[in-house]
Amino acid sequence: MLVIISALVINSFAEYSAEDCWSLGLNKANLLCSSCETLPTFDLGILKEHCNQCCHRDESGYAIKKYAQARLEVCTCKFGAYPQIQAFVKSDRPAKFPNLQIKYVRGLDPIIKLMDKDGNVQDVLAIDKWNTDSVEEFLKTHLISENEENADDYLETNMI
What we know:
Glutaredoxin; 2 domains; four-stranded mixed beta sheet; 4 strands; selenocysteine
């Protein structure tokens, strides 16, 4: 009996990875827990438990999650279907983000993989409906800039 209760407690506090949430059709990067509470009103109560393990707690002082690096993945064969993504990739805009990689993957619709400093994927976002300005604004908001990266180094090198 104690083993069953322990397993239930551990499972209730478990949090799904970004890939787990993505496979369930949930976007961990943007999912607020308040959204999970509204699922039963749309006869989607069955998703509530999974939703709660993929969501971010709502806070009044919403903190924007920042990532050390990102990789935009797309197939060049899909550029015709996604001209806005092609325009972004072929422009000078990616050069503004030194921690952004462009990777061409055969047959893949455009996505952005957001990673920590060790290169571990934290979140995956489908960007097929985004325009060039949306991609740039998102990267400005969610990627750690060189200034933010070097802020700690500056303090360390100028210590007396």
